[in-house]
Design goal:
Layout (H helix, E strand, L loop, with lengths): L1 E6 L3 H5 L11 E3 L2 E5 L8 E2 L12 E3 L2 E4 L6 H11 L3 E9 L4 E8 L5 E5 L2 E5 L11 H10 L5 E4 L8 H6 L3 E6 L2 H13 L6 E5 L2 H4 L6 E4 L8 H5 L7 E7 L3 H10 L4 E12 L2 E10 L1
C-alpha cells in the first residue's frame, strides 16, 4: 500500500487532500499516521498489504481500544494490538449506577488521558475513568442537526459533553448538568476545547435539583432517565421536546406521565443499538402539547 507519513494530529486534514485515497483506511501507529495515496501521486513509503481483521469487535477511543461483552482471551487481545496498535486495551465489563462509572480491566498498556475526535469535535477523557458510548454516534450527530439556534436546552445527564458539544456548536443555549465530578471536569474541558463557552452553562450536581425555568428541549441521555421524567415535565411547556433514553419500551409510561402533568404527548421511538438479548437502547422523542 502506497502511503504518505503524517503526524497523528494532521491525519484528518490529510485524508481530505486530493492525493488521499479515501476508499482505503489510514494506518496509525504511535504519533504517526500513514495515509493511502491515489494512483498518479507521489508516496513516501510502500507498506505491505495487511490481511483483513477478523477478530473480536472493539471500539477505539482516541488511541485506546475498548472491548465489551464476554471477557476477551489473551489471543483476542493480541489480535487487536497487532491490528490497530493501540497504546492501551481496556475490557469494559459494565457501567455502574447514576454516575455511570465504568467497570474496567486493563488488558494492555496503561490507561491515560486521550483526545477522541468525532463529527469534527474533540472530546478529552480517560476511558478507564468515565463512560464514552460510541454506539451513540448517530444519536449525537442527530442532536446537533435537530436543535435550532437560540433554543434553551437542558442536558440532564451531560457526562463529558456527548450531546452538549454538538448542540451548543449548532447554536443552542445548553444548561449542562452532571453529577459525576470526574465527568464534570472533562465536561468543562470539552466545552473550552470546542469553543462553546458562551452557549453552555455547566453545573455539577443532581439534575433534579439544578433544573430551572422552562426549556424548549430536554435531553435525557441515561438508561435511568424514565425515573427522572417527572422532573423534566415540571420544567416543560406545550411545544417542549423531550428526548427520553431507555432500555426497552417506555413510551406508554411517558404518555401517562405527561397526561398526569396536564400535557398530551406525541411519542415517536427509534432504536439506537442492541443492549442485550431482546433488549434495545431506544430513544423516545416526546413532543408535548
Amino acid at each position: 500500500m502506497r502511503v504518505r507519513k503524517v503526524s497523528r494530529d494532521d491525519l484528518a486534514a490529510a485524508m481530505r487532500e486530493g492525493w488521499a485515497d479515501r476508499s482505503r483506511r489510514p494506518y496509525v501507529e504511535g504519533e504517526w499516521g500513514y495515509v493511502p495515496v491515489r494512483e498518479g501521486y507521489q508516496a513516501d513509503l510502500d507498506l505491505p498489504e495487511r490481511r483483513p481483521y477478523r477478530g473480536r469487535a472493539f471500539q477505539m477511543i482516541g488511541d485506546t481500544a475498548v472491548l465489551h461483552g464476554p471477557r476477551p482471551t489473551e489471543e483476542e487481545v493480541a489480535a487487536v494490538v497487532a491490528w490497530r496498535r493501540p497504546v492501551c486495551v481496556l475490557y469494559l465489563a459494565g457501567i455502574d449506577g447514576i454516575r455511570r462509572l465504568p467497570q474496567t480491566e486493563v488488558l494492555y498498556g496503561e490507561p491515560h488521558l486521550v483526545c477522541h475526535h468525532e463529527n469534527g469535535f474533540r472530546y478529552w477523557l480517560n476511558p478507564a475513568e468515565v463512560m464514552f458510548a460510541q454506539g451513540n454516534l448517530d444519536e449525537r450527530r442527530l442532536m446537533g442537526r435537530t436543535v435550532a439556534p437560540g433554543e434553551r436546552v437542558a442536558d440532564m445527564f451531560a457526562g463529558i459533553g456527548y450531546f452538549t458539544v454538538p448542540m451548543a456548536s449548532a447554536g443552542a443555549e445548553v444548561h449542562a448538568m452532571e453529577i459525576n465530578p470526574v465527568s464534570f471536569g472533562y465536561l468543562k474541558r470539552n466545552i473550552t476545547e470546542n469553543n462553546i463557552e458562551a452557549r453552555v452553562r455547566p453545573e455539577h450536581g443532581d439534575c433534579r435539583d439544578l433544573l430551572d425555568g422552562v426549556y424548549d428541549r430536554v435531553v435525557m441521555g441515561h438508561f435511568d432517565a424514565p425515573g427522572f421524567f417527572a422532573a423534566a415535565l415540571a420544567h416543560a411547556r406545550a411545544g417542549t421536546v423531550i428526548h427520553l433514553h431507555a432500555l426497552g419500551d417506555a413510551a406508554a409510561a411517558a404518555e401517562a406521565a405527561a397526561k398526569g402533568a396536564g400535557f398530551t404527548a406525541a411519542v415517536t421511538t427509534r432504536k439506537v443499538k442492541k443492549y442485550g438479548p431482546h433488549i434495545w437502547h431506544v430513544v423516545h422523542d416526546v413532543v408535548l402539547s
